[in-house]
Design the sequence.
């Protein structure tokens, strides 16, 4: 698969194009240019490292939405075995923007749930751009209850621009579906490990992201509103999205320093889309570590710990009452 | 006074406008039927237009006054006040927005919590103040809500939340989003103690508040004509590119779609709440 380069990656794209060209002429060239290729490849690697070392929040948002970024089903394929997808919410429809089912993780039974985006136009529409309707959240709820009943840990993967703002979604209770999940996840008696793998878009993300460990991939984002949405409300112009991204604090590093997430999972040089295998390996390790850390807790200890974590969210001060 | 003004003959000296002019706010126009109403008539009718029944938005403390018995009530969580965790700045700094809102409303944030009684039945009520930054939910709203829940747990009484909000507070970023999880998790503890959690959704109830605890109430009540939903009508219109059906996202529409349990006129609210509480807690009907 040919890598798609983002705007700020243009220097890398040019270098890669040059390398490609050299490779092409190498076969019928009399002079040996393989050394030159190796030199350029290492230069490209260094350049990528340099550019990625100082990405702005807005640039990170572009990486998080990269068209080649691994999605939930990619991670399921690389990290889990025996995935049995379970469709539908048993009452209205099967929402394709959320996938989930039973699987094995390191041989152990578990439940996996995640947002799913599409690659090409047809698939994007099929997956509704990863924007769930109430049925998606109710499917997730069905799976969480199943996990609780059979004592299976839950892994969730978050990657959505947000819950779908449509007429039908409102009519069928988008708010209730999200709120219900928050309620049930707060007291689910099995471990829940949540990973933001791409876009963590607001309530639509949170509805499957209440857990015992919440972690983010290095170049994923998590925010209360999209930078564009925030900019168009507060600056009255979506063009100000880079500023909004900066001030809102949407990146893994910033959110970790604010104590809002537990862990950052490093990505390969140039982002997760450059190397699915390496990304999956480091994610698998993080998931194993998380799961192991809850192994000794009883269900009620687990729920109490989760509750205390939730109650600790928020920054305020206490003043003498007037 | 300038020298020119001193030269003017006293006759044509401009007089300051008479202090006897009509006091501000004596009249009020109904936003729905445009009837011109005496402010005092409107107030004595609990902010409901006597002509068309339109329910005006009202302030949190006025809400408490109309629901709670006058005696034995006190505020909970007033000690919790906002900070600026992100050093947030758009066209204005967040602390400036906070202090401007505080000056306008005499509130420190967008929620007032009180313990008291409805027709002698002890309750804790948390009420959003829409006039404070659109009733948006940030860390202070979340924490005051939780302290209200704790108060209800300690005193073994029902917890009522009255919503009037545009959703999460953008200026607190992800801290705001997490208040959705925090407030909703707190409600699970009321469930364990079998204490009623009642929500009253008023105009407007949107976004992060609508999509957290608003619809997990044991009983979910809406005021007539309130705008209630997840996404705002404008966002939906832009997304689906079609005109929204008549009355979309209004209380009556939600009742029709099965999203709320009942619509209650503000003037009957105190009686209804007392009735529901006594029924849920297996007490005889409230007297008074």
Sequence:
């Amino acid at each position: 698969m040919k890598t798609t380069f983002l705007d700020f990656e243009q220097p890398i794209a040019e270098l890669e194009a040059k390398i490609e060209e050299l490779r092409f002429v190498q076969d019928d060239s009399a002079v040996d240019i393989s050394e030159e290729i190796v030199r350029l490849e290492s230069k490209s690697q260094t350049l990528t490292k340099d550019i990625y070392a100082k990405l702005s929040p807005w640039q990170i948002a572009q990486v998080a939405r990269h068209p080649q970024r691994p999605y939930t089903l990619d991670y399921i394929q690389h990290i889990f075995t025996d995935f049995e997808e379970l469709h539908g919410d048993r009452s209205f429809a099967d929402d394709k923007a959320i996938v989930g089912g039973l699987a094995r993780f390191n041989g152990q039974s578990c439940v996996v749930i995640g947002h799913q985006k599409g690659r090409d136009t047809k698939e994007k529409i099929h997956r509704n751009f990863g924007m769930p309707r109430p049925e998606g959240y109710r499917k997730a709820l069905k799976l969480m209850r199943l996990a609780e009943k059979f004592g299976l840990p839950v892994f969730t993967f978050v990657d959505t621009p947000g819950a779908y703002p449509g007429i039908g979604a409102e009519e069928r209770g988008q708010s209730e579906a999200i709120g219900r999940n928050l309620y049930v996840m707060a007291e689910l008696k099995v471990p829940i490990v949540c990973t933001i793998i791409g876009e963590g878009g607001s309530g639509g993300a949170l509805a499957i992201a209440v857990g015992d460990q919440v972690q983010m991939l290095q170049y994923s984002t998590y925010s209360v509103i999209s930078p564009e949405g925030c900019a168009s409300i507060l600056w009255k112009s979506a063009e100000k999205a880079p500023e909004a991204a900066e001030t809102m604090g949407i990146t893994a590093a910033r959110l970790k320093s604010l104590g809002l997430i537990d862990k950052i999972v490093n990505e390969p040089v140039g982002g997760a889309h450059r190397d699915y295998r390496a990304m999956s390996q480091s994610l698998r390790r993080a998931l194993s570590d998380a799961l192991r850390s809850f192994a000794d807790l009883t269900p009620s200890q687990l729920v109490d710990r989760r509750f205390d974590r939730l109650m600790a969210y928020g920054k305020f001060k206490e003043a003498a009452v007037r | 006074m300038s020298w020119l003004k001193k030269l003017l003959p006293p006759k044509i000296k401009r007089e300051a406008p008479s202090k006897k002019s009509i006091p501000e706010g004596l009249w009020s126009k109904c936003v729905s039927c445009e009837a011109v109403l005496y402010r005092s008539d409107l107030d004595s009718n609990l902010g409901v237009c006597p002509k068309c029944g339109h329910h005006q938005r009202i302030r949190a403390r006025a809400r408490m006054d109309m629901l709670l018995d006058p005696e034995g009530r006190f505020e909970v969580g007033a000690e919790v006040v906002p900070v600026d965790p992100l050093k947030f700045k758009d066209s204005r700094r967040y602390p400036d927005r906070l202090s401007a809102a505080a000056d306008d409303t005499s509130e420190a944030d967008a929620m007032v919590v009180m313990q008291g009684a409805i027709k002698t039945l002890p309750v804790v009520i948390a009420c959003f103040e829409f006039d404070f930054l659109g009733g948006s939910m940030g860390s202070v709203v979340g924490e005051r809500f939780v302290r209200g829940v704790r108060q209800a747990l300690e005193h073994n009484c029902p917890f009522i939340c009255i919503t009037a909000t545009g959703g999460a507070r953008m200026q607190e970023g992800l801290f705001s989003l997490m208040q959705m999880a925090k407030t909703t998790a707190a409600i699970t503890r009321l469930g364990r103690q079998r204490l009623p959690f009642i929500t009253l959704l008023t105009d407007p109830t949107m976004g992060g508040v609508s999509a957290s605890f608003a619809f997990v109430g044991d009983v979910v009540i809406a005021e007539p004509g309130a705008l209630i939903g997840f996404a705002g009508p404008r966002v939906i219109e832009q997304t689906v590119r079609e005109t929204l059906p008549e009355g979309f996202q209004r209380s009556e529409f939600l009742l029709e779609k099965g999203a709320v349990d009942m619509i209650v006129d503000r003037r009957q609210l105190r009686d209804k709440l007392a009735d529901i509480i006594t029924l849920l807690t297996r007490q005889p009907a409230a007297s008074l």
